[in-house]
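Checklist before submission:
- one chain only
- standard amino acids only
- sequence pasted in full

Submission:
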Amino acid sequence: MNVSIPSILLGLGGKCLLNWTLVFLQRKHICKTFLGVFGVSLAIVDTTLTVCVTTVHTHTDGYVLLLGSKLTRYHVCLLVQIVGQVYSALQWPVVVLAGLDHFCTVTLRLQPTTAMARWFVWVLVTAFLWHLTALYVFLLSDFTPVMEDVPHHQIQQCLVFHTSQILQVAMLLLLTLGCVALHAGCSARLFKNSPMNDQITDRSRAHTRRSVVHQAVHVFLNTWATFLVFLAVLFLPPMGVPAYLGLNAAWLCFLNSLLIAVVLCVVCPASQLAQGLAAVPPDSFCEWRFKFSLAAEDKT
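Returned file contents:
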């Protein structure tokens, strides 16, 4: 789809404003997780891209000299296409690394407030991930830039690629969350033929697991139900989402909450949650508080 350069600038400017606003709102713990560190790096990359595109587009001569190279509107379209491909390629690695980070936090009870070493590691991982993804787009992917065969000063629109990775990631994680919830809801039926003592214990554990899953899903949906409807409406049109807008801070915040819900439902640290010992990854949108029956906890 062809998009005018002013529209691209407007979208990038709005995205930068959204990125830095969310970074500021989460400033107390933004750098305590991989997603937080990556969100800051994304805001920096988006700001740099916006400044470059704006400078070239608004320059009176129609080009800008940078380190002896002549940058024109050809390079504006090329840069937008390349960055869009990089953002699309980053979706799944970001999900995997963020999921591992949350899994380690919950299972190993890592406290993010005292994990300066983890912050340093995530900074290095984030820098390496950007570098590796750029190399993949340039050297290994089948990405081919598409440019108009007209003089650079006549270019008013850029061909923009779209991304489907957001829908794939959201559908997979939501399906996983739904399967875990369904399994927890039906788990009590598996213990009907057990001995009486084991049956009581198993039912108590199943009840506790259902409680964790139910509360986690409720907390997530209570916060992000409107955003899920927005995602559904967003992907109804055939054109989809431009790739250069697909990876943004709002999506990372949603992804953070969704991954926390999935990890809590899969790991189900009921006893630690009941005693307040479990370390839940920081989340500025969902309040991950759980309530349990003391009788059920005693039986487990």
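Reviewer check: The chain has one domain: 2-299.
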